[in-house]
Specification:
alpha+beta
């Protein structure tokens, strides 16, 4: 678990300190954070060392009594062990579509909501450098038609669908 947290914190430190310039990226116009809370299943991602070998990946968001956004990321490794990373997030603007997330303070990384279903059933999350990308769903499996619609948007956002790693979601995550 420490290795998972270390890599995750390094990710946010590196992306948070990057000075390279990228073309602007649009996010969704407005996110209702109360509706966004709850469990999300990772359908696909760009692969990085902190998630290498992860399957049955979930991210659970909640808002605590102080109004802070709490994050719990969970994944099962190939050996069956479970990694859990706990973090905190905050919105950087009134749209709530651009968040800063930290699993190892004081380092924060960008978490931008690029696409969001009107019923909050799926989301596409990335960040300005385009090195990180996640397709999230409220269910462990996503409708193929919906998935294709998301994939069709990737090029216009500056992402390549060829880099996606499809996350195995086992029976333990069935709804």
């Amino acid at each position: 678990m420490r290795t998972f947290l270390l890599y995750l914190s390094l990710l946010f430190m590196i992306t948070g300190c990057s000075t390279q310039s990228y073309r602007p990226m649009d996010t969704v116009a407005k996110v209702d954070l109360k509706r966004y809370t709850g469990r999300w299943y990772e359908i696909a991602r760009y692969e990085h060392s902190f998630e290498k070998g992860c399957q049955d990946v979930t991210a659970t968001y909640s808002i605590d009594e102080a109004g802070d956004i709490r994050v719990i990321n969970r994944c099962r490794l190939e050996d069956g062990s479970i990694n859990i990373a706990k973090g905190i997030a905050y919105s950087t603007d009134q749209s709530n579509s651009k968040l800063k997330v930290s699993f190892f303070r004081p380092f924060y990384g960008d978490y931008w909501i690029l696409l969001l279903d009107e019923d909050y059933e799926y989301a596409l999350v990335g960040e300005p450098t385009r090195e990180y990308l996640w397709i999230l769903s409220r269910t462990p499996k996503m409708d193929p038609k919906t998935m294709q619609q998301i994939l069709n948007e990737l090029d216009s956002l500056g992402y390549s669908k060829d880099e996606l790693i499809w996350t195995p979601q086992g029976e333990s995550n069935a709804t």
